[in-house]
Amino acid sequence: MRVLVGCEFSGVVREAFAALGHDAWSCDLLPTERPGQHIQGDVRKVVRWGWDLAVIHWPCTLLANSGVRWLYGGKGREVDAVRWAKMEESARTFRELYDAPVPRLAMENPVMHGHALRIVGVRPTQVVQPYWFGEPYQKATCLWLRGLPKLLPTKMVAERRQACWLEPPGPERWKNRSRTYEGVARAMADAWGGERAQVGLFAEEAA
Description:
By secondary structure, the protein is of the alpha/beta class. It has helices spanning 12-18, 43-46, 81-98, 114-120, 173-178, 182-193, 195-198, 203-206; strands spanning 2-6, 23-28, 38-40, 53-56, 104-109, 126-128, 137-138, 141-146, 161-162.
């Protein structure tokens, strides 16, 4: 399959699909961190290039429930009109990408606040955790799926830590927090690009 991993500079998900023999490409405004097939550009254009499958990690800064207070300039303050307008634009773009002409598509984001969800207009298909896939961390991640089955746990970890609290403040914090865990990437590749996917065995599950 021709696989696009949108808004990914790390190459983690791209390489998980490439390891299974797929023609996998990542796309981001930043260059790739690890060698591989990468398009440095705007995913909103690239997503229309005739892909079989797309996994898109749209930026969550303005959409995540954890940061909703900043839409009001902080607790108890008035609405930040500039930030609110940017949030609306980001949510509309999220929906446009969800509706992109790709037969199999997954959109990934943290738990969204209600203002963004109302604009997106589609609730997530499922919420997964890194500790489902062999990673000792807790970080709720929402998936909006079209033409794809839900991810199933591959290796549950009993002891886990809050992933977001581990990153110290600094200019690289957002990048470190945005990288997909290797275990999650392998689960995506196996479920959506493994043997069962190749022979179409999950078609009924995704319907």
